[in-house]
Design brief:
The chain has 2 helices and 19 strands. It is mainly beta. The chain folds into 2 domains: 140 residues, Sandwich (Jelly Rolls), CATH 2.60.120; 133 residues, Jelly Rolls.
């Protein structure tokens, strides 16, 4: 793939939101961004949040802890001096399907430039950010990878239905970050089970321990206080979960989903939906 330095991020200062702008309109697809962090006291432990926008549309909304756990779950490189934003599915075997989710800079041009916002912690000292972009030829499609955050909380244990809608997006995973008791090798975490129903039929139902066994079997790395519902755990792109169907009359209708988390105790849950979607949908 092609790679080259990007424009220098602006507003790089303690307690600030630094902005990196990548102009759209070129005949390339943006498949990755590497941020190199340096300074007197500055690494990714001094980054609070990372957001990606195309024009006014928010497509990534993650804390640094969430992004780090997502990358580590997938077995990506982990270095305190770097943050990598990966718009592809690295371990899928079929090219170019694995790179669907990259931002086609021609398709995105009508919406706006790509903007990366990095929220820098106030404890950073003399921070500096350098950015490198990774590109492939234009894909000619409007689909991008999204990470969107849906918070919810419950004051009681037991079954809790999460407030999620998908509006036709193609689901890769949902990642459920919780604050309660973490799992151990022999016990479930506070989210001890998740059940997913599509149009009333169960499409996923596993305990925390069962899900983690499958993840390790497929060379994923379970992360603390995180329950991952992974529809493409075996890297099969055809297993991505569709969320729209044709009715008997031929009209397109959104599928209904019920996502039930089973909690051992009360908790606050941040659900990150990882999906392939058109820019202006979710």
């Amino acid at each position: 793939m092609i790679n080259y330095p990007l424009q220098q991020p602006v507003n790089v200062a303690p307690g600030a939101i630094s902005t990196l702008t990548i102009p759209t309109g070129g005949s390339q697809t943006l498949v990755g961004i590497k941020l190199r962090l340096s300074g007197t006291t500055f690494d990714k432990t001094k980054v609070d949040k990372v957001k990606v926008k195309i024009g006014p549309r928010l497509i990534w909304d993650l804390t640094m802890d969430q992004l780090n756990k997502i990358n580590n779950y997938k077995g990506n490189a982990d270095n305190a001096a770097y943050i990598y934003l990966d718009f592809t599915e690295r371990d899928q075997a079929i090219f170019p399907v694995k790179e669907i989710g990259g931002i086609d800079l021609i398709a995105a041009m009508a919406i706006g430039n790509v903007i990366v916002e990095v929220t820098i912690n106030a404890a950073a000292v003399a921070p500096k950010i350098d950015a490198v972009g990774y590109f492939e030829p234009s894909q000619g499609n409007p689909f991008v990878l999204k990470y969107l955050n849906y918070p919810a909380s419950t004051a009681v244990a037991g079954k809790f239905t999460l407030p999620l809608t998908f509006r036709g997006a193609l689901l890769k995973r949902t990642l459920h970050f919780y604050t309660g008791t973490n799992f151990s090798a022999t016990t479930d975490g506070n989210i001890n089970r998740i059940e997913v129903k599509k149009n009333g039929a169960v499409v996923f139902d596993q305990t925390c321990r069962d899900a983690r066994f499958d993840q390790v079997q497929q060379k994923k790395t379970p992360q603390a206080q995180t329950f991952v519902v992974d529809y493409i755990i075996d890297n099969n792109h055809d297993a991505q979960m569709t969320t729209i169907s044709k009715s008997a009359g031929g009209a397109q209708v959104f599928d209904t989903f019920e996502v039930n988390a089973y909690l051992t105790a009360s908790d606050s849950i941040q659900t990150v939906v990882e999906a392939i979607d058109v820019i202006n949908n979710l």
